[in-house]
Write a structure and sequence with these properties.
about 60% helix, NPS4A protein, globular, mainly alpha, DNA-binding transcription factor activity, RNA polymerase II-specific
Amino acid sequence: KARRDQINAEIRALRDLLPLPDGDRPRLSYLHVMALACIYTRKGACLRPGEGMGS
């Protein structure tokens, strides 16, 4: 149970870092939080000058 609580706390912290309106964040499931974090991370990696996909 302690491990699950720690994972859930980290997902909640990750949710707070997403660039979304405050009203939308509480409605996100943990799966949505992880998917959006992956999309945001990939997008940032692709948009970095001289790095990312195709370099």
